[in-house]
Amino acid sequence: MYILVINSGSSSIKVKLFDSRTLDVIASGGADRIGEQGSSIDFKGNRGAYRRELRMTNHSQAIKEIIKALMNTETGALHTINDIKAVGHRCVHGGGRFIDSALIDNDVIAKMEECIPLAPLHNPPNLIGIKEARLLLADTPQVAVFDTAFHQTMPKHAFLYAIPYELYKEHHIRRYGFHGTSFRFVLESMGQLLERSIDQARVIIAHLGNGSSITAVNRGKSVDTSMGMTPVEGLMMGTRSGDLDNGILLYLMNKLGMSVNEVDTMLNKKSGFLGVSGRGNDVRDIIEYAGRGDQRCRLALEICAYRIKKYIGAFAAAMGGLDYLVFTAGIGENSFVMRELICQDLDFLGIKLDPVLNRQTQGTGCDISEKNGQTRVIVVPTNEELMIARDTQRLAGLA
Ligand code: ADP
Q: Separation of 380 CA from ligand 1 center, angstroms?
């Protein structure tokens, strides 16, 4: 019997099928380019690979095709759709309403709909995925797992912006933070990796992927995080700017005549590594070009590392010290170059990288600090889908 985890985005739906008891991955894949030219379904699983190019005009069709693929007689894992005992959905924005994952009912859906203005790009496709899955699997428990839920423990002084208070009260404008599912997974894995409890520790977790954020976790609770009301605040990312003087936005609109949409595109799609380097958003490429002497790529790496350093300093101050600095996600897990740049000259915080261990570590969990480093620096691979499967197993009563 299985748990299906669905991550429904604007033009793709990624799914993973887990054994409902052991949480081993049975199959993973999904639908790509939904509503565009060249849409396809791809799967890899215990019984082989499956690929089919077919026109999929909407998410409803895509979910049906995904289930069909999972039931394919040659390569599919499912005999019938009833083999799915629960469904877990990745949900980006739960606003201030969800402090944990939730069993989905009409009320949960209504609350998610209320959060659409806070995440207009993410919540609508998440909701479509939920609604379609409920149509197909009406009697199967479904669970919403929110990226924002973990950060609901932040104190007011950390989540409020210094703008008129009414904007918070009436329009819910505040910091929410994201990547919470990843941060929770990393915290659970840390305990296992270190073979000791980190319940009382002060931890900074840097989730560095195409989208990046960094979080301060004090005694197991998120106390501050770099992303804000939207995922554009905070660290420099693949194509997002991160922190910015708000006055620049006014300047762009007033003086350069840019429209709201143009500013939106610039901040979310043309900035970050892409904007600074002019080369692209993939840090692997940026590192390679920088190595060949490309100055703007070098600069992009330096800006990124410098900003992460500033957050580490700020969050260590917020917690009155630091016990663990953790790197996770695509860049954090795989790039020794970025980890080296970030940790340089942070000895005053007790951070001392072991250069050999740092270089050797790629994609695996490892303590990469020197023996006498007071603050332990650790690489912990994240796995958001597995965290969603765990929550689904728990809330659907399959544990
Ligand atoms: P997403 O935010 O899309 O989930 P990931 O966590 O998968 O992103 O991270 C993707 C990014 O990780 C890529 O854009 C790439 O920049 C970076 N990355 C992956 N491997 C390496 C590596 N060996 N060195 C540097 N960067 C890497």
A: 14
Q: Give me the pLDDT at residue 112, please.
A: 94
Give residue 328's pLDDT.
98
- Domains (range + CATH), the chain: 2-146 (3.30.420.40), 197-379 (3.30.420.40)
Report the predicted TM-score, pTM, of the whole model to 2 decimal places: 0.95
Return the residue whose CA atom lies nearest to atom 24 of ligand 1: 335
- The closest alpha carbon to 211, from 190, 230, 189, belongs to 230
373 touches ligand 1 (CB under 6 Å): no
Residue indicated by tokens 């409020």: 160
Q: What angle do CA 207, 213, 219 make, to 5 degrees?
A: 75
Residues annotated as part of the active site: 147
Identify the band that residue 11 occupies on the pLDDT scale cut at 50, 70 and 90.
confident
